[in-house]
């Protein structure tokens, strides 16, 4: 079904320097409100954050001064034409993702690939170095 149009839930974040990763932004804002999705590319100076409710977006906007000072971000709730265009972008991106062809594996191929992944994870875990730091 996908996300349903709700007015006032998308906040645009603008920064003077490249933003940190999706997870860092989501964690920073999740303290204040329920974040549904963070839409950004790595190294971008702006991103869009979709919240669960308009109230969540307003909560972030009210307390954004402290976040703005801490991270040097500027917040803006999308409205009107900008909001409509962004929701269109969401739907187009979703369709593009759903229409991507995916590799279909069956039977023994699937089992071999899974076993190979498990073996690779196990060898990576055993080859990790344990480093002890000396506190002076």
UniProtKB/TrEMBL annotation:
GO cellular component, one term: ribonucleoprotein complex
Keyword set, alphabetical order: RNA-binding
Residues of the XRRM domain: 4-117
PROSITE patterns, A to Z: XRRM
GO molecular function, one term: RNA binding
The keyword RNA-binding appears for this protein: yes
Protein name in UniProt: LARP7 protein
Organism the protein comes from: Sula dactylatra
Chain's gene name: Larp7
């Amino acid at each position: 079904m996908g996300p349903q149009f709700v007015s006032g839930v998308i906040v645009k974040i603008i920064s003077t320097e490249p933003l940190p990763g999706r997870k860092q932004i989501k964690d920073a804002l999740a303290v204040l409100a329920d974040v549904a999705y963070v839409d950004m590319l790595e190294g971008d100076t702006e991103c869009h954050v979709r919240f669960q409710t308009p109230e969540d977006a307003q909560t972030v906007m009210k307390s954004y001064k402290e976040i703005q000072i801490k991270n040097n971000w500027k917040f803006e709730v999308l409205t009107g034409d900008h909001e409509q265009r962004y929701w269109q972008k969401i739907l187009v991106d979703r369709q593009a993702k759903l229409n991507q062809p995916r590799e279909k594996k069956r039977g023994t191929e699937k089992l071999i690939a899974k076993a190979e992944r498990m073996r690779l994870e196990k060898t990576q875990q055993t080859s990790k170095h344990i480093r002890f730091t000396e506190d002076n």
